[in-house]
Each structure stands twice: as structure tokens, then as C-alpha cells.
Amino acid sequence: MKWNGWGYSDSRFLFNKKGQAEFTGKRYRLSGMIIPGLKDWMEGTFGASLQHKAPATPILNSTAVQPATINEAFVEEVKATTIPFSVEAEDRVFRAHGHCLHEIFALREGKIGRVPDMVVWPSCHSDVVKIVELASKHNVCLIPYGGGTSVSSALECPPEETRSIVSLDTSQMNRILWIDEKNLTAHVEAGIVGQDLERLLNESGYCTGHEPDSMEFSSLGGWVATRASGMKKNIYGNIEDLVVHVKMVTPRGVIEKSCQGPRMSTGPDVHHFIMGSEGTLGVVTEVTLKIRPMPEYQKYGSVVFPNFEQGVACLREVAKQVCAKSLSCFFWHALKPQVSSIFTSFLDGLKKFYITKFKGFDPNRLCVATLLFEGDREKVLQHEKQVYDIAAKFGGLAAGEDNGQRGYMLTFVIAYLRDLGMEYYVIGESFETSVPWDRVLDICRNVKARIIRECKDKGVQFPPLSTCRVTQTYDAGACVYFYFAFNYRGLSDPIHMFEQVEHAAREEILANGGSLSHHHGVGKLRKEWMRETVSDVGLGMLKSVKDYVDPNNIFGNRNLL
Amino acid sequence: MPSTYTSSGHEELDILEERRQSGDLSHALRTFSPQPYKEKPPCSASDLSKRTLESQYLQYVFKEIATESSLSMEEVKEDARLLLEEMSQNLQLGFIRLMGYTLSKVFKRLYTNIYVNMEGLNMLQQAIQESPVILMPTHRSYIDFLIISYVLFTYDIPVPVIAAGLPLAGMKLVGEILRRSGAFFIRRSIGSDKLYWAVLSEYVKTIVRTGFAPLEFFVEGLRSRTLKSVPPKLGMMHMVLEPYFKGEVFDITLVPISISYDRVLEESLLAHELLGIPKPKETTKGLFKATKVLQEDYGCMHVNFGQPLSVRELCQGKINRSQYNLTPRDLPKVLSPDVQACVIWLAHLIVRIQEEGSYISPWSLMACVLLQCPTSTLTERGMVWSELKDRTLWLKKLALRFGAHLRWPEQVSDQNVLLSMVALHHSIVAHKGDRVCLVREEVPIRKHRLSAEEEVNRTAVAMLMLASYRNQSLHIFLRPAMLATVIQVTKSTQRDELFTFFCFLKEILSNEFIFVPGKSTQDFEEACFLMKDCGAILFSPEEVTVTEAGQEVVSFLCAFIQPFIRSYQVMLDFLTEHEIKNISEKELHLAVRSFVIKLILSGELQTYEALSSDIQKNILSALRTLGVLTKFRGSKDNEYQVDKAAVKRINDILYGKLPPQLLHRTPYAKL
Q1: Active site at which residues (chain A) (predicted)?
Q2: Which end of chain A is more exposed for a tag (fewer CB within 10 A), N or C?
Q3: Nearest to residue A447, comparing CAs of A462, A461, A430?
Q4: How does pLDDT run across A276-329, given as a tens digit for each residue?
Q5: High-pLDDT (> 90) share of chain A, %
Q6: What share of chain B in percent tops pLDDT 70?
């Protein structure tokens, strides 16, 4: 794993000696391939140039890391439990950040702020119980750490924290404890990473179907703690639909339900105090999840629409009808300025295809939806037909399975692209929201325009990339992703400026009826808006839960509230 | 006169110059390919009506109305369709060309030059591609209707759809031509007709949302009868802004446009109307009669396109846009206080910007000077030319000091400039020997002698015309003039005392002049600054004192605003002395008129403007907002209830007999 960028150390985009873009490694379908369009795209979209590099600090300089504040008594007692721990700079720095732009940017510059003073690796529920007891006893601050893929500054150590900060890394709690084939549930330790969970279940012929973009690295416990969402949620549901039972260790003790009834009317669901608690109340240790037999049949697909408006109208119609239930789709805005245009062949083919069929359409306004159908073969084929029929009513044309599959593959490599950008003075971020159907078009237009206007007002030389896509559909609305990136050459404090623009974009989202977050969570990045989001009383409710469960703020990451 | 005209560094181009040199037909048939609004593909006029009628908002309203009345949904919808048919424009390029051709002919006959600021036009061209644009011209003449379309057509900018009064639609042929030139028609008194309001507002909002074309409307609502700004109408303003408030568009651009005339086509008609002679119905026949008017020279015209204003920037921090998050945005809803306040503020701001952007001709300054000469002198011997000239030139300096956009021809001697003005306005003044006197309407031959009252009316027509031209420079002198009056009435030097009286005056005059709500301090300070800048006063944080040299300025300014103050005093006198129960508005005006005429005949009053129905109306509505006068709509007549003690108190303050006190105004009525 990289210490200052996304993903595996062997996988990255680079420009080879011939000046061609290439994706290294062997892990992905794209690995080892030359991507001819990427250079032009970087130059054309951002005005970036291969001559102007902004290289990262190659290795971590441990002298830049603050010495650890050690709580001796705590360390002594941890030693006695034989739970492994470390105070090495590298281990501590690795767990001091998520993947917000500002976090990665600082690491690339070799700047390191407050980091945990110690890392512990419990290997089971009872280890966690011990650690939480000891932390309470010695007043040590605990920050749970799962996959480290947070994009809400949730893992940042509060700089004002004076106690010893201990990062509780759940990665060793990664077993499937049992599978219940009668009820189709699995009981799993919370530290398991998405891809391992799916692989292990697949071996037994099952799956959860929960596939967030980060599933290669993010953990089950992290999903629960942030209310995660996966791209196949239309078929399998979001994390809150999948969870049957949760065990969480808090300074007050362990919280869990007494049975595994599929639904209960027993007052407010205590699971909802746990889901989305973002590590402020305790550590999720074990989860019982629904599982499903692996799908009999899978089929990719893609549809091209003459413009974004028609595409959204089609998605809305699909969401109204049952066929959405076996479909997951990603919907990309205009093709031209898109990241997907790095696949020139893909794009050019589509454009030609579309233009030959429909004359008079502006190729720059075209957009594409990628589709994935899962289930039994008959249903899939039936739903597929239904979806294409609806699409046709909105001017959508089926554009092939291959394109659909490529679209999915892209999901996993997009995060690597940002690292490439940063090598060449391009910084960027994505952020999401959820919004009622009737506001989707308005929010997309207004937020994109706001980003462009803010950049202009702040003197960004090159126009920014400001685009969006619809990634999830619901009965009453959709999840929308925004992408924002620009070339920062010539700006003295690009990160500050970037944050101002992102802040303005969030204000715009809220003013247009969008939510503070669909699934990324609040963390510390968005907590200034929590009060207006949940009302005074709502915030008070959350605070009083925190005060009861964790009066001494042992789980002191200061997220959310 | 030169074809380009440079004033304070801005280039003005005479658009008639080219028309005089090349054919009107080729101008009308030129390739017209403007850069439209980038966001949306164009839609047709019939699409627009269809979208309006099918909108979710109207479905809600139809249902409401059907529930309230005994009508079926279908019937309500049919009513709405008919309203829309009556209302909607049908913009067609062919008719724009026809209009272009005709107007080229007409304008060349009427005007010597039509100046347009190219900088403003360029900014507009840019703005039109970025977001929906609202063109907001001043309204002083019928000419205003088409001049903007004409200019935009000439410069390859999308031509607007224009909100017009319904009576225009009734004119044979002309109504249809206007409709096809982009006019849509609004009834004059909509009152509480819910369906009409809903259809109109949805139609307007659909135009804005789709960026169909720039939308032009007169924020003042009506053509100004007095050539001064009219308090803005808020309904249309709100309709236009709502798509931004609700996030349906990213931004809306407002472009205030100031159209200034050397001489207004309708000048004598306006004066007659103000004296209670009603306006003739707008008919095509009437229009042809008016062709006599077309034989005359009307001098220059100035179209000044203001800086495009971003509604988003203006409303920053004033509107909480998330207030629409919890209900469907299409649901008919009562306006929230922040939206109301913002609309009111913005409408007033636009009118103020229009004022700032308007051009003043030397004639307006001459009118100011002439009006300070006793009426009897003007009507009989006349004012001495050299005095008029000297005073006007003195005033020119002051006006420039106060930041006026003065259109004073260069390379022509002052003497000739002023002489040409007198010639242009031969309907009001005449040069006789070394004097200038007022021209009054000829006495019909069949009448041997006019009654005293008729004599007053005859003079009043000329005086009101003169006053109208003075009003063109009102906004330049208004604030300093109020300060001068405050100084004169209170005889105080204490700044806070002066400020209190200033605010009092502002409240009383708030229907007469345009003040941006909530800007009293700025208004006062602006007045102080201007007066100090021209050396008329000295001021410290506590004190304001008039300088020796400033006496002349102060007395000019007092006299400048005196007609208004006097008219108010007289009206207030009337209200304290008379019972006005069970009386129609018309009867009330008649009663006031005879009261005023008596005062004029007795020599007690020199202010003919007190006869203006406009001023009378303004006072009544000011008193209503102050809660001193209430109007009930009775069975047939209006019933007025006047708090005489309060009226007297206000009048005593105005006369300087009582110290000022803050007045409580009732909030603005619902939009």
C-alpha cells in the first residue's frame, strides 16, 4: 500500500519514456495497458504539461513526525494483555489520515501534523473490550481505524487533543465466524475488508452484494460506522438494509440486540445509534449480515443519451418501475470532458454510433449510463428489455456490454488518477449528495456553475473540471457525485483555495435541497453544517447519547458533533 | 451633432447615423444570428404556452380553484388556456424585421440622434449567453416599448419578449404586430383574480427558466406621467426572481436601462392627464391621429444600458434559499418575509440605478431655473434671457459636481446650446426679445373670455410640463435639496436633529421619490457629502453649518424642492379642514382641486403642482402607509377615515412648528 496516495504500491498511472500514459501492475484489467488519450485529456482539460511536475516527497522522513506522547501505565497494561502494538513513526503516520485531498497533498509535501501516538491491533472482540477498558481507566483517546479510506477528515487527530492518542486498527479481526445457510446470514468480524469478505463468501457460493467503490480497502466496521452505500444497492440494499445484528464495544460496555429477528418494534432502533456514529461512540467488532446465493447471471450494458436531461428523466422512469430492482447503474454526465474519455476508442465509437443514428445532436452533450443486471437469467433478460425500452423513449440507445463493463472497471481506477494529476499540478476531489428527483437537474447545473464561478473569482488560471454523475437511484430521489479538479500552477495556497471552493459547493448543494452527505459521512470536514442538517433538537439528541455512552470522550476523534 | 459622443470616458454611438447612410430595407433584412443563452436549446412560442399550461404549479392552482368554485378541473383549465391565449407573445423574426424597417423610418423622422452606450451593449451581449437576462428600462414614453428591441436587433443580440399593458393588444393590427414582435399582454387591474395571477406568473417564470429570450419589463409598472421615477411594482419583480430563489436557474442577470429623452412625445398629453383630463383609449385610430405628432422634432434620445447585475450576488446573505427544501417547489406558497424584503429592496435599487444612469439635457436644468421664477413673470413679461442663461450655467456646474450625466453638446457655444433647447421646446417656452416666457395653449376662438379657473388650468398645463422636465434631474438634487430644506426648517446645526428631520421627510415623501429601503443613513450622508463637496456646508460628527458661499446653493435647493413641500402642506391643510367621508376618489381629487385653485387665485399659493393628481395620490398613499388615513372599499364609494390630529401633527412638523418624531410605517402590502 502507498503511504501517500491511493491503493496498492504497484498500481499507478504514469507517463512512460515515450510520453504515453500507462497503468502499472497486474491487478486490474487496465493494468499494463497504454492509455493513449490520457495525455491529451490532461493537457486539454487542465492545461497541464508533462514538463511541469510536482513530485511527491519519496519516503517518509520520520524526523518530521512528532515524538509519541506515551501513557506509560496504559502501555504497561497493554503489554500484559499481549495484544500487539507499535509506536513506530511509519505505523502511526499511516493511520493518521484518510484520503481527502488536503490529507494526501500534505503527505506528498512531507508535512505531517498530529498523528496517533501508538497503534494497537486487537484480534477479536474480547481484545477490543480489554483495550477500551484500559483506555477508559487511563484516560487515553481511542480512534478506531478500519480501511483508512475516509474522505471526511474522520481519521485526522484533533490537534487540540493532549491525551495520548491510540489508533485501534481492526485489520486483524478479519474472519467470517459462521455462515447460517437456513437464514442466509453470515457473522463476520468487523475488520474484514470488502474484497476479502466477498471472496470468502463466494467460496461458499454466497455474496453480500455490498460493493462500495472503496471495497478493495474499506472494512465492514467502517461501512457500519459511516452508513455506507454500494453500487449494487438497488439489488442488495445499503448497509442499513444488510445488517441484522451488530456488536459494538463502548466505554459503557457492549451494546447489542438479544436476537436476530428480521425486524423489531422495540422503540427507536439502537442500530441507528451505531450506524453513522463515525467512531465517536465505540468500536464495531462483529456484524451479522444478510447474504445471498451468488447471482446466476450477470449482464453489463450501457445506454447513450443525447443529453443529461434526457438521461436523468430516463433514470427517474426506470426507478419508478420494478425493473430497477435488479439493476444497478452509473450515470455519467457529458462524455467529452469526462474522465472516461481517456478511453478514446470507447468514446469515439460511441459518438460515431450515436451521430450516425441521430443526426443533429451535439456530441458534446452526449452522456452515457452504464448498467449491470444481476439475478436469475430469465428475470435479467426481461428487465434488460424493459430498461432498454424505457431508455428508447428518452432517446437512449443501447451502446453495448463492453462499454458497460469498462464503466465499472473505471470505478476502481479513478482514485488512482488523482495521484497522477497531483504529479502534474492538478488537484481534485469528488463529493456526493442525495437529492429529490425534481431537483437533480437543478442541483447539478447550479453546483457545477458555482464551482466554475468560484474558481474564476479566486483567480484560477485554467477553467476547472466541474462535472457530475448520478450514481444511485431511489424511489424518491438520487445520489449525485460531483467531480472538481483544476490546475494549480501559479497559486500560492492551492489547498486553502480548493477548500474554499469545496465549501462554497457544499453551501450550494444545501441551498438546492441536497443532503450533507449520502454515504461519505460527516467526519470533521462537514460537521459545521450538522446543526442545520438535523436541527438543534436533533443535535442535542445525538449529543446526549454521546454524553451517556462516552462521558470522558475516550472515542475522541471529534467527528460528527 | 457628432455621431459618436463621449461623455465621462464612455463611448456613445448614434445608431441613426448609419441608418441615414444606408438603406433601411437592407438593415431590416440583414442576417440576424445572435448568440443565444447557452444552457437550453431554443423552444417555440407555442411550446412555451404548452409548458406553462402543463406545469405542476398550475395543476395545483387549478385544483384549488376547482375546489373553491363549482367549476370542473377541465373548465378551469380551459379558462387558463384562454387567459394564456390573450396573454402570450408570438415572437417571429419576420415581424421583428418589419418593425425594424418601420422604426428606422419613424425614428429618423422624430429624433436627430439616438445614442447608445456600446460598452453596456457589449456587456449585455456577454451576459445573455451566461444566464437568463431581464431587461429593465425606464418608462417615460410609448417609444420605450420598441426601442430596446430595435437596438438589440441592430446589434445582433436576441430580441426580448416584452411585458405590455393589455389595452395595447386591443389595437387593431398594431396589437397583433406587437404580439409578433415579442410583446405579451398583462391586464391593468388584476386584483385578486387568482387564476390570472397564477397563469401570468407561471408564464413569466417559464420564460425565465427556459431562457426563451431576454425578458423586458418596466419595473415602474406604468409610464411615468411626471417624468420622474415611479415606485416600483413588485409582483412582476417577484415572478422574475423566483426561479433563482428556487434554484431553477443558477443566476439571473438584471440589466437596468435608462432611456432619456430631450423631448417626450406625449408631453402635453401627460400634463392634461395630471390635471384630470383622462387619457384617450389606446386605439389604432388614435395612433394615426398621433401621426401629427410625428411632424415634430424631438431632439436626442439616449439609451444607456447599465452594468448587468447578478441576482445571485445581490441576494447573497439576503435570501435563505433552503426555505424551499421541505415542500414541493411548485406548491403555491405565501412569500416569506426575507423574500418579500429582498424583492422590495431589489426593485427600489434597480429604479435608483436607472436614475443614476439617465442622461440630463440642458433643457432640464433650464426648467429648474424657470420654475424658480414667479409664475406671473413667466406668463406675462417672461424671464430675462441673460439671467436664465447665467443661472443655467451656474446650475450646470452644480449638477456636474453632484455627478450628473449631463448631455451638453461640445463644440457649440453655451448660448447656442440654450437657444436650441428653447427652439426644441417651443411648445412650452418662447423666446421674445431678450426674454423667455411661458407658452400657454391657445384660447379656442369661439370663447371670448376664460373663467379665472380656466385661466389657472391653462397656466397649469404649461407649468406641469415644465415641472416634468425639471423632474428629469430630480434624482441629482433630491438628497441635497432635502438636507437644505431640513436645515432651513429646523434652523438647527445639530447633526442628529437634522438626521431625524431628514428621516421624517423621507417617510412623508416615500411615495413621491425613490428611496432604497433601509438606507436612510446612506442617503443622509450622501447629501452631506455632496453639499460639502460643493462648498455649501461644513460638517463635523456633531454639527452641520452652512458656509457663507453656500447660501446660494442652499436657497436654490430649497426652492427646487419647495413645490413638493408646498403641495404636501396644502393637501394636509385640506385634510385637516375638510370632512371626506363617503366620497369617491375622483370626487376627492375634484374637491382638492377647487381648494387649490382658490388658494392660487387668492395669491396664497404659487405652486401649480399642487393641482397634479399624481402628487395628491402620492400623499394619500403616504398617509395610508403611515396609518394616518384608512381607505375602506364601501358599497360604491371609498370611505376614508382620517386621523385629523395625526395629519395636523405631521403638517406642523413639516411647517417647522413641532419637532420631528419618528413615524411608524406599516409594512409593505403583500406582493
Answers
A1: 481
A2: N
A3: A430
A4: 999 999 999 999 999 999 999 988 888 888 888 899 999 899 888 865 566 665
A5: 68
A6: 92
User: At A141, which helix (H) or strand (E)?
Assistant: strand A141-145
* Residues of chain A found within 8 Å of residue B322, distances taken between Cβ atoms: 510-511, 513, 532
In angstroms and rounded to an integer, the radius of gyration of the C-alpha atoms of chain A is 24
Give the nearest chain B residue to A444 (CA atoms): B250
Residue whose C-alpha is closest to residue A307's, from A264, A364, A382: A364
Across the beta sheet with B383-384, what order do the strands follow?
A: B383-384, B435-438, B429-432
- From the candidates A481, A483, A488, A548, which is the catalytic residue? A481
Question: According to the annotation, is A136 in a ligand binding site?
Answer: no
**Cβ A201 vs Cβ A211: under 8 Å:** no
Tell me the domains of chain A and their CATH numbers. Answer: 66-108+116-171 (3.30.43.10), 176-293 (3.30.465.10), 297-411 (3.30.70.3450)
Q: What's the pLDDT at A560?
A: 96
CA angle A84, A85, A87 (to 5 degrees): 160
Q: Does residue A481 carry a catalytic annotation?
A: yes
CB of B250 within 8 Å of any CB in chain A?
yes
Interface of A with B in 446-465 (CB under 8 A): 446, 449-450
Which of B56, B249, B252, B325 is the mutation pick for testing A, counting most A CBs within 10 A? B325
pLDDT tens, A547-561?
999 999 999 999 999
Burial B495-520 (b: 16+ CB within 10 A, else e): bebbbbbbbbbbbbbbbbbbbbeebe
Q: Are A281 and A274 in contact (CB under 8 A)?
A: yes
Is B248 in CB contact (< 8 Å) with chain A? yes
Long-range contacts of range B103-107, CB-CB < 8 Å, 24 or more positions apart? B103/B146, B103/B147, B103/B150, B104/B19, B104/B24, B104/B27, B104/B28, B105/B24, B106/B294, B107/B16, B107/B19, B107/B150
Evaluate whether B236 touches B163 at the Cβ level (below 8 Å): yes
| CB contacts, 8 Å: B250 with chain A | 445-446, 449-450
Taking CA atoms, what residue in B is nearest to A449?
B250
A304 is known to lie in a ligand binding site? no
DSSP state of A326: G
CB A310 within 8 A of CB A390: no
pLDDT of residue B281: 60
Put simply, the answer to whether B321 touches A443 (Cβ < 8 Å) is no
Instruction: List beta partners, residue A452.
Output: none
Interface of B with A in 477-506 (CB under 8 A): none
Q: How many CB pairs under 8 A join A and B?
A: 25
Confidence of residue B45 (pLDDT cuts 50, 70, 90): confident
By the 10 Å C-beta count (0-12 exposed, 13-18 middle, 19+ buried), B338 is classed as middle
Q: Which amino acid is at A432?
A: E
Contacts of A511 in chain B (CB under 8 A): 247, 321-322
